[in-house]
Amino acid sequence: MQVEIRKVGPGDEAVFDRVAEDVFDEQVNPSLLTAYLAESGHHLLVAIVDGEVVGQCAAVIHRNPDKPTELYIDNLGVAPAFQRRSIARKLLARMVALGKTLGCEEVWVGTEPDNVAARGLYESLGLRGDEAANFAMYVYYI
Question: Which pTM value belongs to this model?
Answer without folding.
Answer: 0.88
